[in-house]
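Entry type: protein chain
Record version: 2
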Amino acid sequence: MKRRDFVMYSLAAASVVGVPASPEELLDHTAADPMDRLRDVLTGTVTCTTDPSTPKALARAVASAKRQVQGCRYAQLAMSLPGLLVELEPRRASAGDQHEVDRVAVDAYHVAASLLLKNGDAASAWLAAERAMAAARRTEIPEAVAAASRILTHAVSAVGHRRQGVGVAVRGADQIAGAVARSNPDTVAVFGALLLRGAWAASAANDRDTATALLKDAGRAAELLEESNRHWTAFGPNNVSLHRVSIALTLGDAGMALAEARYVNVEALAVAERRAVFWTDVARALHACGRTEKATAALLAAEKQAPQEVRSRTVVRELIGDLLMRDRGGRVPVLRSLASRAQVTV
């Protein structure tokens, strides 16, 4: 086996999150799949030789990465995130800094798992989610463990182990339920977001009763909190309503999804990614009901909120392809323009 040549990782890309880069950090950045750099880091193929950054610098970098994923700036994030993750290797921090670095690592690996899930790589996302959970457990902070449980629930369920995914969510929620109160808004946000992810996992397992119960619990938690983005959860009453749409769709009830969509104040959703997901779910429901023109209009609304969510995600591009197949007569001209921007052909 020939050793692969190392190349200089883009300093411009690394500067997006304020983390220095070195020739040894990442493998060939000209690879066809930009996620390969992220997988290289997660599998330990690369290491970082630069001096470790301070916890404050890492925290700023992770906050930037969080804003990128919630703003659906996936291409930029894919370039910058690997350089950040190599900075978070546990052995690099001093004993005094390790606790703060672990707190940062929970969010950083959460971002990595989210980006991998957006790109359809659930297996690698599971690996990143486990890293988040390991860091959370080292912090011994209940909210950090619950936050890691949320992304682990998503990754495990996305691989296909939905029952286990529900179990992760329920166990994590039970561990912080006693601290949920209006006076602890961050705890409420993490708790509610974890319940929503568990409800989605239950719906994916076709467990309607559990999904409904977890949604109700999340709704009660949302009553304690105004619409916000606390702890990077975007949790609030409208996010609960959005999940009712998604879960109805997952359970195969497009009509119910459209009915639930009427209760969502989309402009009140805290982040662009949530608004784009709402319109994409509406498009999926309309497509299931045979309403091609309205489904296209919903996708255009999603594109307006977050172009990369529509133009780059495989699941959305497949939906565009399905709409094109249905509209072979060309009755919806704007669909062709959308397909062109997303580079979808049939």
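Comment: Residues 67 and 73 are 9 Å apart (CA to CA).
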